[in-house]
Amino acid sequence: MIKDITQKPLLELKKLTISYRSRSQTRPVLRNVDLSLHRGEILGLIGESGAGKSTVGNAIIGLLAPEFVQTSGSILFEGRALEGMDEQERDALRSRRIAAIFQDHTMSLDPLMSIGAQLTEAIRAACPDLSGKQTRGRAIELLTRVGIESPSERYHSYPHQLSGGQRQRVVIAIALSGTPDIIVADEPTSALDATIQKQILQLLRELVAETGVSIILVTHDMGVISEIADTVVVMRDGNVVEHGSTATLLDHPVEPYTRDLLAAVPRLRISSGKRTDPTFAVVNNASADDEEPAKRAAILVVSGVTKAFGRTSFGWSRKPRKPALQDISLELKPGAITGIVGESGSGKSTIGRIIAGLETACEGEIVIDGTRVDVASRRQPGGMLGRVQMIFQDPAMSLNPRLPIGDTLAESVRFGSAPSTDARLAISVIMDRLGLPMTFLTRYPHQLSGGQKQRVCIARALLAKPRIIVADEPTSALDVSVQAEIVELLGQAVSQEGISMLFISHDLALVQALCSSIYIFQNGSVVDGGSPEFIFGRSTNAYTRCLIDARPERFTI
Amino acid sequence: MSTDFIETLRRRMPTGSIPFSKALLGTYILVALAAPIIAPQNPYDLLQIRGWEASAAPGTMGGDGYIYWLGTDGLGRDIVSTILYGLRISLLVSIVSTAIAAVVGVTAGVVAAYFGGWVDALVMRIVDLQLSLPTILVALIAIVTLGPGIDRIILAIIIVQWATYGRVTRAVALSEIGKSYLDAVRLLRLPKKRILLRHVMPNSIAPALTLIPIELGHAIALEATLSFLGLGVPIDKPSLGSTVAAGFQYLMTGQYWISLFPGLALLGLIAAINFVGEDTRSKLDPRSRSL
């Protein structure tokens, strides 16, 4: 990555201000954003949701919705203002020299076109002079370049026949088809598993070194920034907060906001078993008392659970399905937090839902508090249904959008069998403990932020007086700073309410900070398990090591 | 240029006609409600009908000095009064049947989606069967089986229309049931009725609501069609459709007014309902709402 600072920047934003204009109001979404991008540079644009980072990316590639208007400032490409060009010239520039990669690899390819056809379409648009054979040759060349194995066979594959990582590689190949100068990558790895993310980032870095392309990387993930960005721009509420080289900014952040943002990123400790991370100090205090529960009988014992999802309608497809879970056994000690870690498709959510009683296991048994439970016995009066509560991944979907918060919570209290006179009291106690103002009771879910909604979900789970809470990726839809708060609340809830928790996550650092024992899931099986000290210090399991290695080094202690 | 012009025209046309349609629909409803007061004659009251003044041309002066502005029909009934009273029947039939069809369809859709399995299969196969046959055929089969009468017509229209609501609601309910707030509710051991009424239905009802105005127009047209075919409301309680039908035989002899004026009234009503309905639908539909 040779970068000549004395060279004129390839792309510059000068005091760029973009406003959202509706009939009733005009509201700025970007205020005086300055940034410059040199040839061969990877510029990371980081911020939490609503920071305006994607708006910057869309303004550069020209994909702003019509409601967004550039009110002042300018975008300069090689010293020429984009606003000054006529429409045709600007479109040509954007289609040839600026390319884009989007987050969702399932959406950015046409499901009805083979990847070869999509790639040649892009190549033809960029270089219309090539013959059919040359176009195809170029397509194969690009597929090879982005690391697709046996490209001439894959050329005829359809998007659904590829894995997520492969699809994102194809998207990158399409972006490269016009030999662009700039690639705007909006969260290119956020929908991918950590191990795949690592490979894709590696690929992007190679491409920069080889072709001298510049990348604007829009992301919310400090880990991604620390892995590949040369320079970082930190954004908040449409303003640039801080700007500098990645190393300087990560090690010596100047602005308090940047410092908070960095501090909120959970760090993985692999050096020793000592817990020194100040972020999760409260949680750690709670789990420090875990010596004792280890000797007590488990509150939850799962043994030999197997689950295969049902046949397709009318038994039309007789293809035997790969079971989602195979012979899963695990246990949870009272008052403890047990972590389940795995990548997408590992079955970690399915086991959570089976334990809660939302799905039925095909084989095996689940024993809660010494009683074997199945669907029928759970439903009986006094049965276990609801004694396991869940907290879900996406708070936006976890609350009935048409019920005020108070009504949602009241339903839970009633289930928790508090007399109705105590309902208000119970709710207000919990709301207070979770830092939710009482005025929220009359609000609707859409009036709350993601973090607030997730607090309401925690309140709902606690009010039902569960024995066990299954938290299924409770923070992965939230910003990092909010994630820290939610994790702290979950830790407190466990220690104060005397419940046990199963914490399902893909984030090793989070699980390490919170859990007293951990199970590693891969393809529906438990491949490794033990205390955090064992998993992160001594485990020799290849998959566990692979997961640990996929973590950005910067955030590993 | 020309496509721009057409596009502009297309966008302008409905917006201009909506206030007019609303006013027209309002007038229709008012007039229908006030029919017994403002109608010069009660066409249901045989004593008021003068058989000897049958098939009088528009503008003919009757025996008592009353002018038949739109003429009389073959039985001597004043066309103005017939239209006013017919309007009542048309509106009554369509509103009642659409309302009941919506309730039945939404309930069926939600129940099918929530319970799944054979309940879902059964409900949806009936829906498929019905939607695969032409509307008028289903209505005819229903009427022939049920027999004549206003209540039977309403029933027939409900049978025709519930399937659409059912299908639309089931699709939405299925996607709502996949959301985690319903998982959370299922963990609270609430009675099924409460889960359905308080959680699933309110969140799945929006697309069905947007269908109502459109289906209302269909119901009026269907009732008119059935009446025109002679299977609708009985002859002594004429609706707009049956009046058009009754006048049909007189068209050959040049007595156009018996069919024409009730027909025009019907046309205006259906057009007004469709315009207003389309407007309401687009306002209710969150997808067509701008940010």
Automatic annotation (TrEMBL), chain A:
Keywords: ATP-binding, Nucleotide-binding, Transport. GO terms for molecular function: ATP binding; ATP hydrolysis activity. It is found in: Cell inner membrane. It comes from Ferranicluibacter rubi. This is ABC transporter ATP-binding protein. One of its GO terms (biological process) is transmembrane transport. One of its GO terms (cellular component) is plasma membrane. Residues 13-262, 300-548 form the ABC transporter domain. Its main location: membrane.
From TrEMBL, chain B:
Residues 87-277 form the ABC transmembrane type-1 domain. Gene3D superfamilies: MetI-like. Keywords: Cell membrane, Membrane, Transmembrane, Transmembrane helix, Transport. One of its GO terms (biological process) is transmembrane transport. Its main location: membrane. GO terms for cellular component: plasma membrane. The keyword Isomerase does not apply. InterPro entries: BP-dependent_transpt_permease (IPR050366), MetI-like (IPR000515), MetI-like_sf (IPR035906). It is a multi-pass membrane protein. It is found in: Cell membrane. SUPFAM superfamilies: MetI-like (SSF161098). The chain crosses the membrane at residues 20-39, 91-115, 195-214, 256-277. Belongs to the binding-protein-dependent transport system permease family. This is ABC transporter permease. It comes from Ferranicluibacter rubi.
